[in-house]
Amino acid sequence: MMFFRRHVQKTIPINNSTPSSSIPLSLDTSNIAEDERESAAENELSTTPTALSPIEKTTIFSNETDSQTTTTSTIEHLAVKHPGLLRLFDSTVCTVSIIISYLFSSKEPIVQQFLGRKLFDYPQEELDFYLPQLINMYIHIQSISTVIHEYITTRCSQSVDFSLQCAWLLDAYIADQMKVAKPNAAVRLLFDILYEKYKPKITYNPTTINNSSNNHHRLDEDENENVNNQEDEMKAERALSQDNLMLQISRKKGHQKSRSDVSGLMLTRNKRSLPIMNGEASKQHRRQPKLCLGDLNSGRAFDNNCMCFENVNGFRRRECTCNAPKLAPVREFMTALINIGKKLPHVPTKEKKTQNLIGEMKRMNMNLPARVWIPFYKFPHHVVRIAYTESTVLNSRDRAPYIVYIEIVLCDNIFASPLPIKQNDSKLRSTRSEENLTHHINNHQIPSTSGMIGSYLNCETQSLDSELIDSYRSFVNSEDADIWSTSDDVTGDDAQLPHQSVPRRNGLIGYRSNHAMNINPETQSIRSTESHLSQQEIMPSDIRKRLTEVKTTGPILFERDPDDPSAAALKEPWDKKEQRIRSASPYGHLRNWRLVAAIVKCGDDLRHELLAYQFMVRLKEIWLCEHVPVFVRPINILVLSNNSGLIEPILNAVSLHQIKKNSKLSLRNYFLREFGTERSEQFLTSVRNFVQSCAAYSIICYLLQVKDRHNGNILLDDEGHVIHIDFGYMLSATPKNLGFESSPFKITQEFVDIMGGLQSDMYGYYKILILQGLLAARKHMDKLMPIVEIMQHGSQLNCFSKGNVTLGLRERFHLNMTDEQLEFNVEKMVESSLNSLTTRVYDTFQYYTNGISK
């Protein structure tokens, strides 16, 4: 089992047509040419050019010459045998979809070799979409694995994110093969990636702190504001290891922490002032902390100990020269999330599951901020904190998927941008915080407590103001018998009610009045006069009438239910949730702070979800190209193994089950309550959105034969769109193999009522959109079929377990029908789905077994 060993020496890749040989290379980084340094792209991950010896240059030149010769001979053979294919592949109409399709269907080695090299000519983003197909072909088709091996390994040596995606997909798709076959080249590739044989060279263009020549504001400066202000602070705080810092914080209480921390930093500063050679401190003055990857109790579970990009005299190193594992931090972060999901099903009630989840999230926060990120969010960022109090368990009978809200900060370079200094969850600290210690060092005195509070209020006043204003507004808008009368008659006592409620409000605004700055008496008198006039103009009866109108129309907020804690969390508008979490976060003051969310799922095979996601993305592009006005929202999927992964949540959306359970209304009445009266513009827009999304998902459910369409798997967003989730049962897979749902798709009478009835224009518009969408999909069927055909080859997925699935999918495009015949067929499908007995039976089954509303 030699391939399980880690390869220490790098070898020169030799073309498959020549005998393989390995020549060890000794890279001399000290002789890197200065002009090569200046040519490195700023903030870009790439392989750094290094100075090579004459022998190495000769070897590489020989390999390049052999490669060019092989390519030329392949093109000549292809021009003789398949001139038409060569013209197609070299034409501008040849897309990535065509290349992938021919690579899979062609059996000739010459064509496969040509297409394997052709992959380098296309944008990486387009080929990343077909990465599951490439990995599946690599596992199950040996001839293709040989020709695409160079492309995959080259990409792995250029990108950490691509290496992670390949490792996770290989692990997921190899799991089925390992049950029936011996390890092959795919297993060797997996271990080579995990052992970082193709570890990329991480490079970064050095920048000077507070460099006035920069004409734009860098995200690096946003991510750690202290770096912008003081260079010495960064040196002093980075010199302390995280182990010593956590030990000091845990041992010292109150104001005793201030002097000891200051003295410690002063000592550290003296050590850092020693001469530094080649950007590295002497080992006797700088101890490398112990590697604790995966240990959540260490405080550095996601830290790989790489310190290559630390600031030294205002500059950062150009490249990472250490052997720190680059893939391990993100892998350990994902493993920690998955392990929590595996523990939760054994907790008895949902309330206790949520409490257990919050405790586990707090443990993870001990190890943050860290250089980890959420892979399906493509912008570069660092995870700094998990809003653990917002984490909640979602609805599931047998498993316990949960949603987690993650605080991130945007950055320029994941590996080189500085991390924010670790902050305590308590925003108002009585003791000296780490970010203020350097101020004491520079001034050699301890600032007063009032100065500390003043400096804190300067950066946090906005957050405090927003919290108080929100609390005040919620208090004023609340239903209180002491404030608003219950009759329409306005009496003298009623007129005095606002003045009688003033003492109760003082408890909310007392903080503002006690800590406010000096206010001009004239300005205060003017404000009081305006307030008095406004009280005379607006009568309590008018206010009560307006509140009644607001209560009967507008968004409905769900109350927290112990049996379904996720309903209230998902119904809260995202912008308000983001603002609320930011105001309570110790990192909320950072200008590049953002909030993202992820659903962690264990025990389910998300490879079905990934296949459905790819299919919907292509359909969305087709409908956009053909100008079909339908709506579909593909959901990002991160497959981590054959039974776990992450799902991107749909913001501002709740399930139909949660709507009917919490609002106690029919769907049409819910639309009237949520979006206004029937003639209002908002209501009409929401109905149009509902129809367009219903048509899109009707086509998707028909083509992919999606099952398990109960009301818990259908969402409704705040604009009226219907969004289907959970594609675990599609094509040949059905829940419990019962086959209840035999209708083409789900359309119920409640859906038709929202459209306005069977005779309404919107119902006719719904059927027209289905016809237009099917015609467009049939026109571009060649872009959709390879996605499913390639994944079926050698697959053990449940959706491919019965019969020839791709043949049935091809038949559902109805290539033998004219447009008129297809229109008639759409009418029949809609009618049969609307009157389907099996749909009603399955909804009833879910109601009695899982409590899901019908």
From TrEMBL:
<dbReference type="Pfam" id="PF21245">
    <property type="entry name" value="PI4KB-PIK1_PIK"/>
</dbReference>
<dbReference type="InterPro" id="IPR001263">
    <property type="entry name" value="PI3K_accessory_dom"/>
</dbReference>
<dbReference type="Pfam" id="PF00454">
    <property type="entry name" value="PI3_PI4_kinase"/>
</dbReference>
<dbReference type="GO" id="GO:0005741">
    <property type="term" value="C:mitochondrial outer membrane"/>
</dbReference>
<dbReference type="InterPro" id="IPR036940">
    <property type="entry name" value="PI3/4_kinase_cat_sf"/>
</dbReference>
<keyword id="KW-0418">Kinase</keyword>
<dbReference type="InterPro" id="IPR011009">
    <property type="entry name" value="Kinase-like_dom_sf"/>
</dbReference>
<feature type="region of interest" description="Disordered">
    <location>
        <begin position="487"/>
        <end position="506"/>
    </location>
</feature>
<feature type="coiled-coil region">
    <location>
        <begin position="217"/>
        <end position="244"/>
    </location>
</feature>
<keyword id="KW-0175">Coiled coil</keyword>
<dbReference type="InterPro" id="IPR000403">
    <property type="entry name" value="PI3/4_kinase_cat_dom"/>
</dbReference>
<dbReference type="InterPro" id="IPR057754">
    <property type="entry name" value="PI4-kinase_beta/PIK1_cat"/>
</dbReference>
<dbReference type="GO" id="GO:0048015">
    <property type="term" value="P:phosphatidylinositol-mediated signaling"/>
</dbReference>
<dbReference type="InterPro" id="IPR015433">
    <property type="entry name" value="PI3/4_kinase"/>
</dbReference>
<keyword id="KW-0808">Transferase</keyword>
<dbReference type="InterPro" id="IPR042236">
    <property type="entry name" value="PI3K_accessory_sf"/>
</dbReference>
<dbReference type="GO" id="GO:0030867">
    <property type="term" value="C:rough endoplasmic reticulum membrane"/>
</dbReference>
<dbReference type="GO" id="GO:0004430">
    <property type="term" value="F:1-phosphatidylinositol 4-kinase activity"/>
</dbReference>
<dbReference type="InterPro" id="IPR018936">
    <property type="entry name" value="PI3/4_kinase_CS"/>
</dbReference>
<feature type="domain" description="PI3K/PI4K catalytic">
    <location>
        <begin position="572"/>
        <end position="838"/>
    </location>
</feature>
<feature type="domain" description="PIK helical">
    <location>
        <begin position="1"/>
        <end position="201"/>
    </location>
</feature>
<dbReference type="GO" id="GO:0046854">
    <property type="term" value="P:phosphatidylinositol phosphate biosynthetic process"/>
</dbReference>
<protein>
    <recommendedName>
        <fullName>Phosphatidylinositol 4-kinase beta</fullName>
        <ecNumber>2.7.1.67</ecNumber>
    </recommendedName>
</protein>
<dbReference type="InterPro" id="IPR049160">
    <property type="entry name" value="PI4KB-PIK1_PIK"/>
</dbReference>
